[in-house]
Amino acid sequence: xxxxxxxxxxxxxxxxxxxxxxxxxxxxxxxxxxxxxxxxxxxxxxxxxxxxxxxxxxxxxxxxxxxxxxxxxxxxxxxxxxxxxxxxxxxxxxxxxxxxxxxxxxxxxxxxxxxxxxxxxxxxxxxxxxxxxxxxxxxxxxxxxxxxxxxxxxxxxxxxxxxxxxxxxxxxxxxxxxxxxxxxxxxxxxxxxxxxxxxxxxxxxxxxxxxxxxxxxxxxxxxxxxxxxxxxxxxxxxxxxxxxxxxxxxxxxxxxxxxxxxxxxxxxxxxxxxxxxxxxx
Length: 281
What we know:
The chain folds into two domains: 4-95, no CATH class; 113-270, no CATH class. By secondary structure, it is of the alpha/beta class. Helix content is 37%, strand content 21%.
């Protein structure tokens, strides 16, 4: 299991860096830093020697993110260093009482639907497997040719490749766009080729104990069976065949709109059927 080191002042930070360098480097460490910046969250190396997870206190429920990170690190084979004041840590610990990083219920602020996007070339394999698999699981099975996942360009630890990453909004499409281009591009307005956007039942994933929180991401270890959790599949073809210049922003917005409309129509049909049954119609 991983070790967690706490840094409460600059002297402790300097000592920590010297010790890690002497022991072989930062490859097996994640640095969690709490700040007061307007940027809510940052993940990556950003010219640093160590992978960073930076969370702003302006982010709602930052206390949960701090404690999810600590709880997660204590359960996996990677180490974490947490840069936080003693008062901030105490406040986070008090708010987190009764919670864990893999608790079997969604929190009030967590989305009921999560998304996983993949390039279209991966869709056939996903359909054959009837599941989403982590990069490491796919690589070991010989199902992908790439030597490294796209996250390696951000400095992602090897540990992350054991998970199926979930999210929402345009971020999922940015990953597909970056994968297609072979480089990290965070531009949501760049033209790209959409793949497949899968909408998943987050409440059910959590209730089955599969949802993992590491302080920055929501994810599932190893694989996720689609039969149990898939709600909707969006592709460029079933969203708008006429559109030729998709961007991560336009595709995610239009796909989300289609998913919402589909849900509303199903709910209306269900309510109508229920009313007919209750009235004997």
